[in-house]
Amino acid sequence: MLPFTMEKPESAEAAIAAAAGGARYIAGGTTLVDLMREEVERPERLVDINALPLGGIRVEGDDLVIGALARMSEVAADRNVQRLQPLIAESLIEGASPQLRNMASMGGNMLQRVRCPYFRMLDAGCNKRTPGSGCAAIDGLNAGHAILGTSEHCVATHPSDVAVALVALDATMRVRGPEGERSFPIEELFRLPGDTPHLEHTLLPGELIVELRVPGGPYSRRARYLKVRDRASYEFALVSAAAALSVEGGVIREARLAVGGVGTRPWRLRDCEAALVGKRLERPAFEAAAHLATQGARPLQHNHFKVELLPRTIVRALEMAGEVA
Amino acid sequence: MTVSTIGNPMTRVDGRAKVTGRARYAADFNQPGQLYAVIVSATVGLGRITGIQAAEVERMPGVVALITHRNAEKLAYLPHKAGIDPATGERLHVLQDDTVRFYGQPVALVVADTLDHAERAATALRVTYEARPPLVDPMDPKAESIVPDTRGRVSPDRARGDADKAVAGAPVTLDATYEMARENHNPMEPHATIAAWSGDRLTLWSKSQYLVNEQAEIAAVFGMPVENIEVICPFIGGAFGTSLRTWPHVTLAALAARQVGKPVKLVLTRKQMFFTTGHRPRTLQRVALGATNDGKLTGVVHEGTGETSRYEQFMEALTAVTDYLYSCPNVRTQYRLTELDTGTPNHMRGPGEASGIFALESAMDELSYKLGIDPIELRRRNEPEKDEAENKPFSSRSLMQCYALGAERFGWARRTPEPRSMRDGRLLIGMGAATATYPAFHAPANARVRLLADGTVEVEAAASDMGPGTYTSMTQVAAETLGLPPERIRFRLGRSSYPQTPSHGGSWTMASVGSAIQAACIEAQAQVSRLATADSASPLYNVAAGELEWSDGRLRRRGETTGISYREIVAKAGAPIEADGSAQRDPEVAERYSMHSFGAVFAEVAVDPDVGTIRVRRIVGAYGIGRVVNPLLARSQCTGGMIGGMGMALMERTVLDSRDGRPVNAHMADYLMPVNLDIPELDAHFVDEVDPHVNALGVKGLGEIALVGTAPAIANAVFHATGTRVRSLPIHIEDVLTA
Ligand SMILES: Cc1cc2nc3c(=O)[nH]c(=O)nc-3n(C[C@H](O)[C@H](O)[C@H](O)COP(=O)(O)OP(=O)(O)OC[C@H]3O[C@@H](n4cnc5c(N)ncnc54)[C@H](O)[C@@H]3O)c2cc1C
Ligand code: SF4
């Protein structure tokens, strides 16, 4: 690990000023410190934001508002979260391990780095870590990599679970920067790799995530997160699906669907959602909709199975959501 | 009355020290003024070092030395091979030349005042190479298999009858190939060595399962007298075989400490534990079976190939179980190696047998479906009366009792034979069974017992306790033999200066060291008896040896109650009474019997038919292992082994990038093994088995067999659940997705 300085300002203004001057925010540190130890991340200056009043979870009308510093474990255990947006709670519990969830913040979760193994190895080509150095994964071992949204420069999946749920639920993010505050759909935070895979998000220099806002909808309660993986815990998704349904008289009125483990960012499936609306809450409708998910999929040498697994995961997640009383 | 402690479920004597953090592991023995070393590992898979930009790194903060092949001391590397070292080939010589044999090989060592400084400099060091593409995939057409040179240790080929002809002409046949991934041991505790020289004497606090060999190996590497080295390792945080051999990092720590003139601490990173400290070799196996319509085996062919390095031929007992497991007049086994540009593999829990039995027991399961015979019944029909390969009786064999007990506890009767016929809601349920077996090894071992005047007893042996509970079980043996409560015994291990013992592996510690301790205790009693009967002031003066009885810490005349306590005898003697004992297997008995443990393992899995997730719901094992010294420890051994077997069946796989040989998932988040949520109800039972031949204690060993058999039981259950036969481990979601 390289030497660095760390400051812990009491005001957001001071933190933002430091970050605008090139410092990096640190919240739980579970992504950042991990990568600093391996010199994949090499910040010289850190701003510890844990003294800022960015925690807490509150309800505003139909909206659930989650502070950027709220811990994953805290959010997952929150009664309002469980009651109003069970999808968020479930996707959090399925992520990482209890120890990590106790440290990891919601803001940090949105900006966690990819889990591509070559990204972590300084002696491998990786355009995301070292622009222009190539992508070792494309012709290497890529069973865990993406089939959607890839480019010839990077094929890494976005690893977050809860981001999949947030994207499905049309959550928005409020950020504050040197120029003031703005809000935007979380989906817009994540960039596709294109030919600039080292640019992962759309935050401007110095911008601080303040909170996440999840609007309530008629589908919010009938929602499930399914994470498919080879062991029961402490593994990133091979494929995951967040499904939320609003049903009246056995007919789907509204649907929200996003998937993880397959895309270079949390992947919303609007075509599948549209295909579900007006259909009976039955497996054939799920299968027909899920079938659309793999359109445009570009599997790599070792991850063809994801093309098969993705629709199956969606069908099952929809079934699970449909079973919610 | 004799205090009986053998057979009691005594809790671990070292448990409190472990959970309170007082147990000291190798890396805990920090020395005053010690420096920190970090290895720089090769980033190419094959080639030559062409440049090392040393100057920049030598100037970095805190750096005391940068040691490379250019400035490292030339080491003696005298010939030395223990039983755990490959018989053929020569160990890796570290920092002695510019050759890179495999990805991750140490190419430099940074020594600095702090760990941070050493790590930083190690990351900064630029090494250039002339690289060639390595060959790391045994499936590569360029990979060739060779006949291993066993130097007479065992034969790679064995045959009785004409197996190929018998299979070809059999009414029912099965011929299939099985593959198993490379695995790394991944114990919790990383490899660690602290080396300190004092003149020409070297002390190594070093994680080791074989202290006296670490001492001998380092003596050979440095060309120095064995007596000048002491290896200390009182606790091990799991090892599973990775610390049986003495690997290059131990040499590096000692070399660095000598070069800088200060104690040096060297701890491997998790990633480096995938490079130079061995692995379970990837294997490819073919099994061909021929049987009559009523399920009697007529021919068995088992051909297995394991990977090894280019510089050493690592061999394991891959096909050995097939020679003796079932009755069949025609059996042929064959063992080959594929030399690859990787580090040398080594033994990993259940070595060889665990891999080989996956193939054989999968094949037996496949055959049972072809025949329409219950898998357990198929094994019963082929149960041998003796070891047909050696033409000797088994010293004991309780396989059928194990199947009976296991089947009852597991509820095998509820199983419906058709694949995909059992469900729990949407989930497909499968039940599978497999045989487990492992040799009941024994090796010469020594121990020392010291009776002290305060009534306590010290027992010493250069043994290890990597988790099975050696501290506790040896305490029980001494307590039982001396007729004392276990609280009065202090058993010490983990020092090479203690009496010599064999490696702590191969399930022979209880048998070998336990027997040596028993012998030392008996010898101490003999000394005490001599003193007591020679002393005219003693109540036992002139009592004949045959009339003496030893119980409750007292020596008395048979039938009398008083006698004399040995505490008094020791006090009278004026000095502790010390006795050495040793044990080895009677060669005549060894010649007469075939000695193995046997077991039956049952697994139930649930497979999600939509998304292919496989979860193990329960495992039941029943084992015949001779005498059980401590049922609590034995159970714990078994559940640990079952979890290892689950990892082998469903998760563990070290994946190498064929372009440069790098292990891509050298990380605890990427190398999957079971976590708590994966671990179901695990149940271990022991059949009553008395084996008077194996050793004086009648114990057969348990650590290894506990892993053997679990993987095929799970694979067979997956087939029963899905109807898809997966012949390659680990079985992942994608393998059953189309089921
Ligand atoms: C072994 C392992 C397994 C994991 N498994 C999973 C999993 O299964 N599913 C899953 O979803 N996640 C998983 N994670 C990721 C984990 O959830 C993230 O590491 C965590 O959420 C990051 O939060 P943090 O507070 O620790 O972030 P930090 O490490 O502190 O920061 C991460 C990044 O976010 C930036 N940042 C933090 N807060 C703010 C803010 N308020 N405004 C602007 N920028 C900010 C930092 O500058 C940094 O770039 C795993 C992590 C590990 C190490
Ligand atoms: S997939 Fe992306 S992160 Fe992985 S090596 Fe390629 S560029 Fe780097």
In words, what does this structure look like?
The complex is a heterodimer of chains A (325) and B (739). By secondary structure, chain A is of the alpha+beta class. Among the domains of chain A are: 44 residues, Uridine Diphospho-n-acetylenolpyruvylglucosamine Reductase, domain 2 (2-Layer Sandwich), CATH 3.30.43; 101 residues, CO dehydrogenase flavoprotein, C-terminal domain (Enolase-like, domain 1), CATH 3.30.390.50. Chain A has eleven helices and twelve strands. Chain A has a five-stranded antiparallel β-sheet. Chain A has a four-stranded antiparallel β-sheet with strand order 9-10-11-12. By secondary structure, chain B is α+β, with helices and mostly antiparallel strands. Chain B has three domains: 150 residues, Aldehyde oxidase/xanthine dehydrogenase, molybdopterin binding domain (Aldehyde Oxidoreductase, domain 4); 187 residues, Aldehyde oxidase/xanthine dehydrogenase, molybdopterin binding domain (Aldehyde Oxidoreductase, domain 4, 2-Layer Sandwich); 335 residues, Aldehyde Oxidoreductase, domain 4 (2-Layer Sandwich), CATH 3.30.365.10. In chain B, the strands form seven sheets. A seven-stranded mixed β-sheet of chain B has the order 3-6-1-14-11-12-13, with helices on both faces. In chain B, strands 8, 9, 10, 15, 16, 18 and 31 form a seven-stranded mixed β-sheet that branches. The longest helix of chain B has 26 residues. The mean pLDDT of chain B is 96. At the A-B interface, helix 11 of A face helix 3 of B. Bound molecules: flavin-adenine dinucleotide and iron/sulfur cluster. Flavin-adenine dinucleotide binds next to strand 2, helix 2, helix 6, helix 7 and strand 8 of chain A.
